[in-house]
Amino acid sequence: MKIKVLGFYGGYPANGDGTSSYLIQSNGFNLLLDCGSNALNELEQSIDPLNLDAVILSHYHHDHTADLGVLQYYWQLHPEGRKQPLLPIYGHTEDPLNFGSLTWDNATIGESYSELSPITVGPFKISFLKTHHPVPAFAMRIVDEDGKVLVFTADTSYFDKLISFSDSADLLITDTNFYANKTGLKWHMTSSESGYLADKANVKQLLLSHLPQTGDLNQLVIEAQKSASDKLPIMLAQSNKIINL
Ligand SMILES: [Zn+2]
Ligand SMILES: [Zn+2]
């Protein structure tokens, strides 16, 4: 499994970098995980978007879906050269208006997922965990045919069920929107909580993502490391960062 970061900020793009989006590739299959602001520009650096096999969305907040409409236009405006007649876009159905917008005539088709049962998308088995967020959002556990495991927390505040859901993942990508000193109501995790989760779940490496636009981001790594084993590799998400599992 190859993971390429296309965008990593929470909320809005900054400094030329976009918001939540990742290209996940395995056995020739191209899965776009979230489609935030600037995702299409970044995706075009890697593959023709007509070569996507599927898109999956963790939730419908704009920083995860901002470029979805233009991706749909891209498919609509290119009837020739598509890898398949319609691009499947997977989303939850708890928000019927947004789920309905995933289907775009002669271009894309909405496909549903839920927490109740895992789905198969090409070479990937994907299971879901509803997170703690102001709108329905789902963490994903993505397993490829070689048994490699990617866990993506989506947007969430910390809760204990994330530990068993992330168990022994080869890579954990966490919503680390806050520095450790954040207090009060939180709908995202802090650096310390990301490190704690990775440590308790015994994951092999941790990628901090959904990052804030302020402060020295290296501080997030230092804070996460304090809550985890010294040996756990902890990385910051960056555009075009590639991780092979
Ligand atoms: Zn977000
Ligand atoms: Zn969100």
Automatic annotation (TrEMBL):
Q: In what residue span(s) does the Metallo-beta-lactamase domain sit?
A: 18-210
The answer on whether this UniProt entry bears the keyword Nuclease reads no
Does the keyword section mention Zinc? yes
UniProt cross-references to InterPro entries, sorted A to Z: Metallo-B-lactamas, RibonucZ/Hydroxyglut_hydro
One Pfam annotation reads Lactamase_B
Q: Which domain of life is it from?
A: Bacteria
What keywords are annotated for this sequence in UniProt?
Answer: Zinc
Q: Which Gene3D superfamilies match?
A: Ribonuclease Z/Hydroxyacylglutathione hydrolase-like
Q: Which PANTHER family match?
A: METALLO-HYDROLASE YHFI-RELATED, ZINC PHOSPHODIESTERASE ELAC PROTEIN 1
Q: What is this protein called?
A: MBL fold metallo-hydrolase
| Naturally occurring in which organism (per UniProt) | Nicoliella lavandulae
